[in-house]
Structure formats: structure tokens, C-alpha cells
Amino acid sequence: MSKKTNINVSKDKMFTDLHRLLETQNFKSEDELKNFLNNMMGAEIPSFPKEALSIKEQAQDLIFEAHESSITEGRKKAAEALKLDPDCIEAYEYLGTLENDVTKAMLHFQKGVDIGKRLFGGEFREENKGAFWMIHETRPYMRCQQHLADCFYGLGKIEESVALLEELIELNPNDNQGARDQLLLFLIVMGEFGKFEKYAKQFDDDDAAFPLFNKALFAFIIEGESENALKKLKEAMKSNKFVVKKLLSAKFELNIPETIAFGQESEADYYVTFARHVWDNIKGAKQWLRKNDQSK
């Protein structure tokens, strides 16, 4: 579970450089800020030389370099980053994604979460709750928390995973991370149908495969082979034609892709890796899929 990443390194580096650049400016009005950003459109955002960076920023840059290095060199850069800044959450996130062993990965992610709760808790949390993802500095913490939720689920600790995912949505109701995908699936496993309906309603306009297949499965559990359940299943199959075949395959290998393309096999792999055993354990669900499989 820990191999899933939702960080585009080059994009994150660009936003980091932009954030640093904005901090050097002395805007006197919102219009000045808007004009500055408009002038930056299409322009290359400069990177700051090492001597102009704080210790914290130097540590962050080492992790950007680590992502572009071999694993051996990357680990060295992460160790150097933590020596510079023991609170470098990005380093723990990076180290966690290197681990194939869930229990080892979660130790790194837990450290990142613990640091994040300390740095961004209390008054900061109360003032910014609801907009955490819009604050650039909090993103590594939020990514670590999502990774940690995946690890807990991989170890069968579903309640712990759900608590972390619900907190992410509380901090960022827009859910830019897609935490709702796993949350809705895990709520089905727990039989928390009231909560499922609450979050499904909150994100009703989501047309990706993960939420659509979640909703189809939920409708089947509640209604059986109803017209409504079949309608939702057809909507889900239309969004991604590969999911049903992979759910029914006896040879599917768990695989969380580095990048996910909507409607493609990568998206199907992402969903099926999390959801396959859930469908397996719902009486009649796989037979319902076979009956209505449109990929034959």
C-alpha cells in the first residue's frame, strides 16, 4: 500500500520555488499580487541559490534531488536532509515510499504525521481548518497521513485508516488528495452505511472509476440486483472498461501505479488493488458482475 504516491516532484518543486519567490516580495495590495502572478504566467520560475535558502529549505531541496536520484543516493540525501532539519516531513515521506514492507513504511509516515500535527496543530489548525491543502507547507504532512491510512488498511486496521481519512477531509473538504475514494470503500467494509451516504452525497459529482464502482457496490449491497444498482454499475463500467475484467480475473496482481490516467488500465489497477477483496467478500457481488460484464 505504501508505494502509492500523489506527489508530482517537478510540479511540487515549481510551486515551492514560486512560494519562495512570493515571500521575497512586499505586496501592498491584492491587485499587486495578481499583477505579479499574471506577469509570471508562462515564465520560468527561478530557483534560489543554496546560500539564499534557510536550513529548512535546503533540506527540502535535498529531497527534491533524492527523487531524481538512485535509491541508494536518495537515502543518503534524505539522511542529510534530516541532519539539517529533523522536522523535514518531506524526508520521511520519501523514505516511506521506498519501503516495500508496510510496517517499515508506516514508521516513516507516522513520523511525518507526528511532526505535522506538532507544527500545524493547535491554533494553526483551528484557523486554517478547511483550507489545509491550499497552504503549501502542510501538503507533505497531509500526504504522509494519507500514506499512513493506506498502511493501516494494508495491516487490516480499517478503523484507524478511516479516522485518518476523515480527518483529511475535515482539514480539506475539497479533498484534492482523493481521500474519499478509499474512505467510501472502507466504510462499506465497516458497514458504516450512514457515513457512506453522507460522504457520497458530499462528493456526488465525482465521475472517476473509484467512486462510481464504490456507489455501484453500495447500491448492490442495499438493494440487490435492482434497476438502480444496475444503472450505477453501467455508469461505472462506462467510466472504465477494464475494472470488471480485473475484478473477475484470477491472475490479477496487486499494483498501485505511480501515475493514474482516467479510463485507462492504470486507473483500474488502482481501484482493484484496494477493492478486489471487498467485492470477493460481498455475497453475490462477483456473480452480478459476471452477469452484467460488458467486456466479454
- SS content category: mainly alpha
C-alpha geometry:
globular
Residue ranges: pLDDT <50 for 5 or more in a row? 1-6
Strand percentage = under 5%
**What pattern of helices and strands is seen along the backbone?**
HHHHHHHHHHHHHHHH
> How confident overall, as mean pLDDT?
88
Number of helices: 16
Radius of gyration: 21 Å
Short précis:
This protein is mainly alpha-helical. The chain has helices at 9-23, 30-40, 55-67, 71-84, 89-98, 102-119, 122-128, 139-154, 158-171, 179-190, 193-202, 209-223, 227-239, 243-248, 265-281, 285-292.
Describe it.
Residues 1-6 have low confidence and may be disordered. The protein is 67% helix and 0% strand. Helix 5 (89-98) packs parallel to helix 8, helix 9 packs antiparallel against helix 10 (179-190) and helix 10 (179-190) runs parallel beside helix 12. The longest helix has 18 residues, at 102-119. It has helices spanning 9-23, 30-40, 55-67, 71-84, 89-98, 102-119, 122-128, 139-154, 158-171, 179-190, 193-202, 209-223, 227-239, 243-248, 265-281, 285-292. The protein is globular. With 296 residues, the protein is mostly helical. The protein has a domain at 178-296.
Short descriptors:
mainly alpha, 67% helix
List the helices and strands and how they pair.
Elements: H1 9-23, H2 30-40, H3 55-67, H4 71-84, H5 89-98, H6 102-119, H7 122-128, H8 139-154, H9 158-171, H10 179-190, H11 193-202, H12 209-223, H13 227-239, H14 243-248, H15 265-281, H16 285-292
Helix pairs in contact: 3-4, 4-5, 5-6, 5-8, 6-8, 8-9, 9-10, 10-11, 10-12, 12-13
